[in-house]
Amino acid sequence: MADVTADPTPRPSQSRPTSPSVIHEGLPTQLPDIDPDETHEWLDSFDSLIEDRGRDRARYLMLRLLERAREKQVGVPALRSTDYINTIPPEREPWFPGDEEIERRIRAYIRWNAAMMVSSANRKGLEVGGHIATYQSSASLYEVGFNHFFRGKDAPGGGDQVYIQGHASPGVYARAFLEGRLSEEQLYRFRQEVQHGVGQGLSSYPHPRLMPGFWEFPTVSMGLTAIGSIYQARFNRYLQNRGIKDTSQQHVWAFLGDGEMAEPESLGAIRVAAREELDNLTWVINCNLQQLDGPVTGNGKIIQELESNFRGAGWNVIKVVWGREWDQLLARDVDGVLVNKMNSTPDGAFQTYSVESGDYIRESFFGGDPRLRAMVEHMSDEQIRKLPRGGHDYRKVYSAFDAATKHTGQPTVILAQTIKGWTIDALEGKNATHQMKKLTKDDVKRFRDRLYLPISDRDLDLAYEETGAAPFFHPGEKSPEMEYMMERRKQLGGSLPKRVNRSTMLKLPGDKVYAELKKGAGKNKVATTMAAVRLLRDWMRDPEIGARIVPIAPDEYRTFGMDSMFPSAKVYNPMGQTYESVDRNMLLAYKESTSGQLLHEGISEAGAMASATAAGSAYATHGETMIPFYIFYSMFGFQRTGDSIWAMADQLSRGFLVGATAGRTTLTGEGLQHADGHSPLLASTNPAVVHYDPAFSYEVAHVMRSGLERMYGATEQHPQGEDVIFYLTVYNEPVAQPAEPEDVDVEGILKGIHKVSTSEAQGPRVQLLASGVGFPWIAEAQRLLAEEWGVAADTWSVTSWNELARDGVAAEEWNLLHPSETPRTAYVADKLAGSDGPVIAVSDYMAAVPLQIARWVPEDYRVLGADGFGFADTRPSARRFFHIDAQSVVVAALQSLAEAGEIDPSVVQKAFDAYRVDDPTAVKDVKQEGGDA
Question: Strands 725-729, 689-692: parallel, antiparallel or unpaired by DSSP?
Answer without folding.
Answer: parallel
